[in-house]
Design brief:
By secondary structure, the protein is of the alpha/beta class. Helix content is 24%, strand content 26%. Helix 1 packs parallel to helix 3 (80-92).
Length: 280
């Protein structure tokens, strides 16, 4: 089970201590109970700089029949998950990528898979509506409305780029995050509800996106199963050279913590300047 983060030796230079919470989604646990439990787990990560939760952990990424009933407002003054996560981020004094929720759109009947990012003051500093919806004309692809804009979030130490699960298969989104103005993403956060039967793809794509963009990638999956779909887990922190700094062995509920030496981004880009050779 998750608990307080283990102490790590600080590295010289600018660092971000990231903790990925690989949350168990138990169908017998109510959404309210899980929300309270996850808020407590976030508070236990006091001492981290950035905490990350998985995709659609309140309801389950494959619990399609519950999307409409569990949809909520992304406004922190209204949505129950946003309220709980705002308070947890503030209490822990951490930046929190709170995974994603099913968000009610302003358009009649519209639902979005929306990520929420909170500052240590509990302020909602960024939202991202998932652009690539999974399902091939079924499930999420038919129930959710697609987002349209890549999103980066200013962070005091490193601009964050936001992507969600199936987005990982579309490298052009990650290029857009790296190219964003006024500063491209240097740490890309990818919450997911990735199925176990494609676990190797999850690990492969996460490393590939880190290598080709020379960024840190924080890939946070879920434990357990979503509506009977076994989850891959395998949350991982990957550096700009593609090395896995820390990872979950499997799909049990756990915490993955690593220090990101931010100076490594520029070192990798200067020693192996592949981004400078881009033509398209």
């Amino acid at each position: 089970m998750l608990g307080p983060i283990a102490p790590l030796d600080r590295m010289d230079g600018g660092t971000v201590r990231a903790s990925l919470l690989q949350i168990q989604v138990d169908p017998d646990e109510s959404v309210n109970s899980r929300r309270e439990r996850v808020a407590s787990l976030v508070r236990a990560q006091k001492g981290a700089d950035l905490v990350v939760l998985p995709e659609l952990w309140p309801v389950g990424a494959f619990a399609f029949d519950r999307f409409a009933a569990e949809a909520e407002d992304a406004d922190p003054a209204a949505g129950p998950t946003a309220l709980a996560m705002s308070a947890a981020a503030r209490d822990a004094g951490v930046w929190l990528h709170a995974g994603s929720i099913v968000e009610k759109g302003h358009e009649a009947g519209a639902l979005y898979n929306t990520s929420l990012v909170f500052s240590p003051a509990g302020e909602l500093t960024g939202t991202y509506r998932k652009i690539h919806r999974f399902g091939f004309d079924r499930g999420e692809a038919t129930l959710m409305t697609a987002g349209t804009q890549p999103v980066t979030v200013p962070h005091p130490q490193a601009t964050l780029g936001l992507a969600t699960c199936y987005d990982l298969r579309f490298p052009e989104l990650f290029r857009a995050l790296v190219d964003a103005e006024p500063e491209g993403a240097r740490v890309i956060v990818v919450p997911a509800g990735w199925p176990a039967k494609r676990a190797e793809h999850w690990s492969l794509f996460a490393r590939a996106r880190a290598v080709e963009n020379q960024t840190f990638v924080l890939a946070c999956g879920t434990a357990g199963s979503h509506a009977g779909v076994a989850q891959a887990g395998r949350s991982a922190v990957i550096d700009p050279w593609g090395e896995v700094l820390a990872a979950a062995d499997g799909a049990e509920e756990t915490v993955v913590t690593a220090d990101l030496d931010l100076s490594q981004i520029d070192k990798v880009r200067e020693s192996f300047p592949v981004l400078k050779d881009r033509v398209l």
